[in-house]
Design goal:
Length: 248
């Protein structure tokens, strides 16, 4: 008996065309390109599509925080436009994504290096080293984003999750980003050592955000209104935790 080859039409559930310009834009992260490609798969011959945020995140296996971050970069770059549609009661119903056919100003497109070019000749060596460093930093940033997304996904309380996200954003703003799983776990353990009350944990994170502290601290009595730190709490050495948190 001979084997048989059966062709399955992968286009039967819909398809789309992806502009090469978007795929070659070095200013876009690979996740942003994946989201754009996903939207393109819904358009067929048109220029609009209507997938929900939940559907996009589920199909691409990304968190909503990751989605919001990279959909914003696509909007800022002028590749997509999003229109919110409301129902008869004036409440949000769904989004309409429009893929823009003209993007201005012209984005920077990467060029392909042919095999016979000598990357280490003259200035090309410096360019190669710079590009290699750039991609290493970019990959490191992507990895830290994934670590943060995984950490936040495990926080079941929505308000506490938002407080953690705001604290992480503040740390990045003051040029002291949290980039490793260890740093996040130290912060979480520190909060839980101080209190198991979710609302109090949120308050501690909010106070740290307000004062732009690198960690969370106990403030008591008169010191609370002035943001002064009580150094120890029940034998718990906050200074040691701060040192570990900063060391990553």
């Amino acid at each position: 008996m001979n084997d048989k080859l059966i062709t399955i039409d992968v286009n039967r559930k819909g398809y789309g065309v992806i502009p090469k310009m978007v795929m070659q834009d070095v200013n876009l992260d690979v996740t942003a390109k994946a989201i754009y490609a996903y939207l393109c798969s819904y358009t067929g011959k048109g220029d609009c599509c209507f997938p929900s945020t939940d559907q996009i995140c589920a199909d691409l296996q990304i968190s909503k925080n990751t989605y919001k971050k990279y959909i914003s970069s696509l909007k800022e770059m002028g590749y997509i436009n999003i229109m919110q549609v409301k129902d008869n009661a004036g409440k949000f119903s769904y989004n309409v994504f429009s893929l823009m056919s003209t993007v201005l100003p012209q984005t920077k497109i990467c060029t392909t290096v042919t095999a016979d070019q000598n990357l280490y000749h003259g200035n090309n060596k410096d360019n190669y080293n710079k590009n290699n460093t750039f991609y290493k930093r970019k990959n490191t940033k992507k990895k830290s984003d994934e670590i943060i997304d995984t950490f936040l996904a495990e926080i079941t309380d929505d308000d506490l999750r938002e407080a953690y996200q705001a604290f992480i954003d503040m740390r990045a703003e003051i040029k002291a980003p949290i980039t490793t799983e260890r740093m996040l776990n130290i912060l979480k353990n520190k909060l839980e050592k101080i209190t198991n009350d979710t609302q109090k944990q949120i308050e501690l994170l909010n106070e740290a955000i307000f004062h732009k502290w690198k960690s969370v601290y106990i403030t008591e009595g008169k010191n609370a209104s002035k943001g002064k730190i009580t150094q120890d709490y029940g034998g718990f050495n906050l200074d040691e935790f701060e040192r570990k948190l900063n060391d990553g």
